[in-house]
Amino acid sequence: MAILGFLRDFPLHGYDLKNRVASLAGHVRPIADGTLYPTIKKLEDAQCLTRRTAPGSVAAPRHMLEITQIGTDQLRRWLRDPEPGFVTDDNKWYVLLAFLHHLENPREQALVLARRREFLDQPAQLFFDEQGAPIPAERLESPFRKGLMQIHRSTNLTEIDWLDRQIVDLNRRAGFSVRQHDGV
Amino acid sequence: MAILGFLRDFPLHGYDLKNRVASLAGHVRPIADGTLYPTIKKLEDAQCLTRRTAPGSVAAPRHMLEITQIGTDQLRRWLRDPEPGFVTDDNKWYVLLAFLHHLENPREQALVLARRREFLDQPAQLFFDEQGAPIPAERLESPFRKGLMQIHRSTNLTEIDWLDRQIVDLNRRAGFSVRQHDGV
DNA sequence: ACAAGATATATCGACTCCGAGGTAGAAGAC
DNA sequence: GTCTTCTACCTCGGAGTCGATATATCTTGT
């Protein structure tokens, strides 16, 4: 998804893609060659991108990659209806967020944000005692577990706050465009 | 690591472990059976844990798992000198944090927190233009990317704040115990 | 002229993990 | 009685990823 998302911005070659993806995922951890190039080939076979050999500006010849209409459609499908992991896994969610603007329709964007919002609303219960009963943060003996829950709560609130403001904003914009479209 | 960490608290059987690990990793996403049971067997072969068959309280017989001295040592080694991924990947870091109290020595605990602190200090540059120059958050056109960087910065500050307080606290405690030990 | 090093693409084997499926025992439904 | 459901454990195949390795090209230093 990140590959198509970056290509949607402008054409790139594999080596450049590698660095851009690396700075996004996790943080800074580079994507291995053995992952990138087979994936590019797979996307090419699926006609999601085209390849044009260009002389390397600095060194060996590059394969400039360009996204196709099929690729754009595929990207939008992934964004519009993300797999559960993309909502519940922080790293994946951030990747999705980085490309959500390619899903042009503000109402659809708001729906995706709402799914994340819903997920964050679930109360986090991380630790349980021998009987399986949840242990509240104040009862935890380990200061690290206490901090873990504190940080978790605090960062969740930050994100929820941002999500709510975005969702309102997007729906307002969607409302305007509907009214314009209806001629009201 | 999570398996040994939980067992260090008290003996558990596989099914129970599964649920406890699930509520920690990512969030709530259950660990697959196909991952858990082979891993338990691997740890047993490495003599990190022992297995005792007990009648199931509700259904089929359980295998109660108990951590051994070898397992405890292994756990402490992992905690003391974590692989890079455990410092740079949020999910893995949280798992590590959940069991860091098993690394009893406050000075060693502080060192691990310091590694995370150092990682968080690196300025995050997530997006680049066609020429490869970094784009500051204010210049980003996508509100999602802007929010992404805002949230990233805000949550980092929260965690850094907590880390600093913990590190000071742990070093203070380490200092006391050294002085006590020296008879000062 | 030639070696060294950065750029750039590609492949292979090993490893991890998951999901689907299977076994089996006990409790509760009808 | 037997059927379903929940608990509990286990295995296999496939998908995905990584690290090592190989290759080609261009620049720079000597």
Description:
The structure is a homodimer of 184-residue chains. The first copy, chain A, is mainly alpha-helical. Chain A has two domains: 2-74, Arc Repressor Mutant, subunit A; 105-182, no CATH class. The first copy, chain A, contains eight helices and three strands; from the N terminus they run αβααββααααα. Chain A has helices spanning 2-9, 14-24, 33-45, 69-80, 84-88, 90-99, 106-121, 143-182, and strands at residues 12-13, 49-54, 62-67. In chain A, strands 1-3-2 form a three-stranded antiparallel sheet. In chain A, α7 (106-121) packs antiparallel against α8. The two termini of chain A are 38 Å apart. The model of chain A has no long low-confidence stretch (mean pLDDT 86). The interface between A and B is large, with 45 and 45 residues. Chain A binds a DNA duplex (30 and 30 nucleotides) through residues 13-15, 18, 31-41, 56-63. Chains A, B: InterPro entries: Metal_resp_DNA-bind_regulator (IPR052509), Tscrpt_reg_PadR_N (IPR005149), WH-like_DNA-bd_sf (IPR036388), WH_DNA-bd_sf (IPR036390). Chains A, B: It holds the Pfam family PadR. Chains A, B: It comes from Glycomyces rutgersensis. Chains A, B: Residues 3-76 form the Transcription regulator PadR N-terminal domain. Chains A, B: This is PadR family transcriptional regulator.
